[in-house]
Amino acid sequence: MKKxxxxxxxxxxxxxxxxxxxxxxxxxxxxxxxxxIPKKRVxxxxxxxxxxxxxxxxxxxxxxILNIQKNIRNELGNGHAEIFNAHLLFxxxxxxxxxxxxxxxxxxxxxxxxxYGVLKKYIRAFSKMQDTYLKExxxxxxxxxxxILRHLFGRKPRGIHTIPxxxxxxxxxxxxxxxxxxNKNNVLAFVTDIGxxxxxxxxxxxxxxxxxxxxxxxxTRIIKDDDMIIVDGIKGEIIVRPDQKTLRKYExxxxxxxxxxxxxxxxxxxxxxxxxxxxxxxxxxxxxxxEIQSVLSHGADGxxxxxxxxxxxxxxxxxSEEEHYSAYKNVALQMVPNSVIIRTLDLxxxxxxxxLQIPHxxxxxxxxxxxxxxxxxxxxxxxxxxxxxRASVHGNLKVxxxxxxxxxxxxxxxxxxxxxxxxxxxxxxxxxEDIEVGAxxxxxxxxxxxxxxxxxxxxxxxxxxxxxQYTLAIDRVNEKIAYLYxxxxxxxxxxxxxxxxxxxxxxxxxxxxxxxxxxPLLAVILLGLGLDEFSxxxxxxxxxxxxxxxxxxxxxxxxxxxxxxxxxxxxxAGFLDKEFKDVIKKFQG
Amino acid sequence: xxxxxxxxxxxxxxxxxxxxxxxxxxxxxxxVSNIKxxxxxxxxxxxxxxxxxxxxxxxxxxxxxxxxxxxxxEALEDLKKFVSKSKC
Lengths: 589, 88
Hints:
The complex is a heterodimer.
Chain A: H1 2-7, E1 11-14, E2 16-19, E3 22-29, H2 47-76, H3 78-81, H4 83-91, H5 94-107, H6 111-127, H7 132-153, E4 167-171, H8 176-180, E5 187-192, H9 200-208, E6 212-214, H10 219-222, E7 228-232, E8 237-240, H11 244-265, E9 281-286, H12 292-297, E10 303-306, H13 321-335, E11 339-343, H14 370-376, H15 378-391, E12 396-401, H16 407-426, E13 436-441, H17 444-448, H18 450-454, E14 459-462, H19 464-471, H20 490-505, E15 509-512, H21 520-529, E16 533-536, H22 541-550, H23 553-565, H24 569-588
Parallel strand pairs in A: 3-4, 4-5, 5-6, 9-10, 9-16, 10-11, 11-12, 12-13, 13-14, 14-15, 15-16
Antiparallel strand pairs in A: 1-8, 2-6, 3-7, 7-8
Chain B: E1 3-9, H1 18-28, E2 34-39, E3 42-45, H2 49-54, E4 62-68, H3 72-84
Antiparallel strand pairs in B: 1-4, 2-3, 2-4
């Protein structure tokens, strides 16, 4: 049975597209060493040499970790190197060491066997914990445990730096410690079981400009070392052991993509405007300041969404005002004179704050999150607002509140902002008094009352990921109903139109920072609806710019009028697909 | 040698998590005495980071420290001072 499974051809797996591109190549499976430890007896007289072997392994592991830590500190900075302090503590844990030594003397089995048993015991204990921060430490314990075992077995560390030739890295997950030792020239793509578009794997792939597909769940169990696979970082798919026909299909697909990429590269310095000169702002979504390089190289006009959750995640205490401030100042300075829209803390939903012990909710997307959380905890909210205001003198910063559901919340948030401004004035700390303030429109009730909201903000940014999920009542994390998640649903398009109209009627500009703005064919409709700003991942920028430059504003309005008459999302998507193919041909010609 | 026991309440905002836990362990490791920490039915070594973490001792939880050894009193004083601090 098992054998049959392993030779099945053309196995297609769907994950999350984390970095665009297409690659065909051989697999390098990280962590493929099966933990299969023989239960072997040790004679009384050899016990002391087993203890010595264990101590040596600990020593070597310590050296290895210190080395990696040093490399990471040089390459990525102190923050990233911090994780390894926890690794060192686990390594030096007295209980663990004593337990191994006493187990060894009692059971008289090899030290590998005893150590693995103790390790498993700790992992079990941690997996039962309530606290997410502590639960996450399992990966640290695992990482250290594996290193020690490798040294005990006398195996060479199977880090990525041992790759002999160009390979696709397949792993459960990639940690900074994995990618730090990476021989970047030999990596074709990343493929992982877990992760999201914001995980370390995705960010690393984007900075190396190689494709990545994450969140494939079982990929490490299906793929074998040396397997041939196709990685489609555009659709977020991989094909394991493709047959000749599929290979040929993707070879063509890849060369087309590369050709298009070259053409799109030429777009970098051209303005984002239609053939008849209608200008739009094309900005980028980022999570980390290090992404700015990519923002600039893809020719964005600014940053339309700077997510700030990472300040709060995977750490112990809350971030200080100085931490916020120095990051915002850095981003503002690098982007000046272009604008940077900082979204205030949007935790909850699929992102949790570990140290605040927010209770688990049945329905987190509709729970205590984002602005709701910030209004309930002005102490936390004010720290961030102060930092943004202080940094506003260094560039063109704007503030944006997530998940506003009505005017009451907006006023409360604005009141808190005003308080912070007054405090700064009293303290004689300079800030931009006219800093633009916007509301994210992602809750249907906000979209429906946009006229009211528009009177008290300087801009809107439509967050389509959540707006679609709330409007269509589709949990976007639930795979069974994923097919219902339709950006082209007539209900969604009408809602977006009403928000844009409400904004324009009140003389404020309207942008979009959801995934919808990054899809060229949808962008054409949004253009026709009058959207002023499009913000998307840096990698999508050239394609959207291409779409904008391929049509006239009049054309897009006509397409949009037609589309608004259609009855189903499928009709609309089908129509666009047909129309869009012509558009792209015209560009390349 | 005498064995001393002391019931303490965690004052630190973050409880005995990551950083506070590692500081606790670092203090405990300065002493030769045997140090155990109990919370509910669980009892772990006070010199083990993993042990302390598995206690999940949040702010307000009660722990019992048991120390046996020649420098037991000094160790207790030191740990008591640390646990009752609200910041670290």
